[in-house]
Specification:
Blueprint lengths: L4 H9 L10 E4 L8 E5 L2 E4 L5 E6 L6 E6 L11 E10 L10 E7 L23 E7 L6 E6 L13 E2 L24 E8 L3 E7 L5 E9 L2 H5 L5 E7 L6 E10 L1
Length: 256
């Protein structure tokens, strides 16, 4: 891995005093996935580094998958949290797009994510009500990271300050051969850092070679409006379409 778990812990721990109480989800690897529920095509596999990963979709067209913690979590009154994880999109189709993307999702309706109807541009998420997600889109919206709610991916690129392009790179997903450096689907190990203080989202990504790229700055959203009052589940989704790749989550830490 290009970023050690020590760095991951240090960066998250520096902000924990802002929380009224602290609960932690911590998976340096996914050697034990007994706490997870897998939907669709999600499985545990061995990643490119030799460590176990959650593979949300295999490198095959028309697949969808999701992995989420079976036990719901209880956010504090502000519903603030911080999360950091590494992902890798690799082993893609060589003559078409490496589509379609993945999400980090907080949902009250986990049975909706990763289902068979969530392949392609739905990226494992597109019909999930009562939810908030950070989408990492590798095709339809051209290398974009953004905050979406209630399964509505059409808002990517339309809501001011809710989205951005890593390193400013935007374009079609139809690229013959490997994606260029700086694209989410370039095969690198990426780090995502998502922070929500109860009012504002701030999101940064890093591709391991080019430094940090801030993609969302102070996007205001009350997630309680989207989530409702029921139990809250957290996890990840992905989907493939005509193009495809292995969509892997390598590690995950969340403080709330």
């Amino acid at each position: 891995m290009k970023h050690s778990i020590l760095t991951l812990v240090t960066m998250l721990a520096s902000a924990t005093p802002a929380f009224a109480h602290v609960q932690t989800i911590d998976y340096p690897t996914f050697s034990d996935v007994s706490a997870f529920t897998f939907n669709g095509n999600a499985t545990r596999q061995t990643g490119t580094t030799g460590s176990p990963v959650i593979r949300l979709t295999p490198s095959s067209g028309g697949k969808s998958g999701a992995a989420y913690l079976t036990t719901p979590i209880a956010l504090d009154g502000r519903q603030a949290f911080e999360t950091k994880f590494q992902f890798q999109i690799h082993n893609g189709s060589s003559t078409d797009q490496w589509s379609d993307g993945l999400t980090f999702v907080i949902t009250a309706t986990p049975s909706e994510i990763g289902a068979s109807g969530e392949a392609g541009g739905n990226i494992g998420y597109g019909t999930d009500p009562d939810s908030v997600a950070v989408a990492f889109d590798t095709c339809a919206y051209g290398n974009e990271v953004g905050v979406v709610t209630n399964g509505d991916l059409s808002t990517l690129g339309t809501v001011s300050s809710a989205w951005g392009y890593p390193y400013g790179l935007k374009g079609s997903c139809k690229v013959n051969g490997p994606q260029p450096t700086g694209w989410l689907a370039d095969g690198d190990i990426w780090t995502a850092d998502i922070r929500y203080d109860g009012t504002y989202f701030n999101i940064r990504v890093e591709d391991g070679t080019s430094g940090i790229s801030k993609v969302v700055s102070d996007y205001q959203l009350k997630i309680s409006t989207a989530l409702g009052s029921g139990p809250i589940y957290v996890g990840f989704t992905a989907g493939t379409g005509l193009g495809y790749a292995d969509y892997d989550i390598l590690d995950w830490k969340m403080v709330y």
